[in-house]
């Protein structure tokens, strides 16, 4: 047998600290430190101790010990020999916020830059949460502004805290500012929804709302603007406002059945998305063909819905007698027209259109659609996916398809906007 290597005292200390960290055992960590002979901590060891302390803050029985021990370590070892990094200062900022000292938490977050490190959202979050929780709205706004100026994007916990303190202090302007910043999220927690719901049921919301509208007016506006926005201003009529964005053509959220009143998508982001789709399509398609389609869309921009003809026609047709079903597309066209009194744009490959024209039983319908501007035939050698995707994005239309667009998501990787766009526009 090989002899077991004898660990140095420093290595034994580190191994014991690692065990405390894995188990999140604050009491064992305190005992380890106090039983060591004149412990000289490395920065890595100090950060491990502080991490254990910050993890213990959620335990009411350990919170006091965690705060006292954490500050004892930081103050004793922060003597110039150890240069704290972002992780060090963030952990101590959490301790400061936990004892209600938002000013110290903010000072620690700001001091990260003094050590040549870049602050993260987690660095500013303790101070922001502390100020918000104690009703110090202006200080919370200041922290949020500084974090955003540093290029950091606030996430749901921070935005929810800012919404809450804004609603509690009657700052309607700030409520709507942070509601707008919530919009890119694909969903929110029930606790966040409770804050939003509470605001829109309050008297203050009614006082700052821009107008009163009925549900039919909201549905009509949603349809008119492609399902992603209503452009009616902020509505404070006591109705549920939801950021779950599974909108259907009736303007109803399929996730909860409530009216989808304030879902929106940034116009600037939409334009970037359209440009990305066009750029990729131009690379994949014959440039002249796709440019012709872009020009055609500019002249025919009255559509409120786009139909992926091939996808609808082949829906649930994978059985022995199944095949391309023009009647399924006809049903969708009829339904869209019934909803909006406007015919949709059906995008279908030229090869399928020619086959349909050769069928006497379908020829009349196809010619009627062509005369009415319902049908656009994509040229041979093209992928009609790029055409209906571009049309729907460019015209801010609802898109009728079961296509998950996985290929396009892969090609548009790094652009999370496509996920949000799908949720707000795909039917």
From TrEMBL:
Keywords tagged on the record: Hydrolase, Magnesium, Manganese, Metal-binding, Nuclease, Repeat, tRNA processing, Zinc
Native source species: Genlisea aurea
Residues of the PRORP domain: 248-426
Reactions the enzyme catalyzes: Endonucleolytic cleavage of RNA, removing 5'-extranucleotides from tRNA precursor
Domain PROP1-like PPR: 1-207
Listed cofactors: Mg(2+)
Enzyme nomenclature, EC number: 3.1.26.5
Pfam entry (one): PRORP
Name the UniProt record assigns to this protein: ribonuclease P
EC class name: hydrolase
Record carries keyword Zinc: yes
Family indicated by similarity: Belongs to the PPR family. P subfamily.
Listed GO MF terms: metal ion binding; ribonuclease P activity
InterPro entries the UniProt entry points to: PROP1-like_PPR_dom, PRORP_C, TPR-like_helical_dom_sf
Single GO BP term: tRNA 5'-leader removal
UniProt KW NADP keyword: no
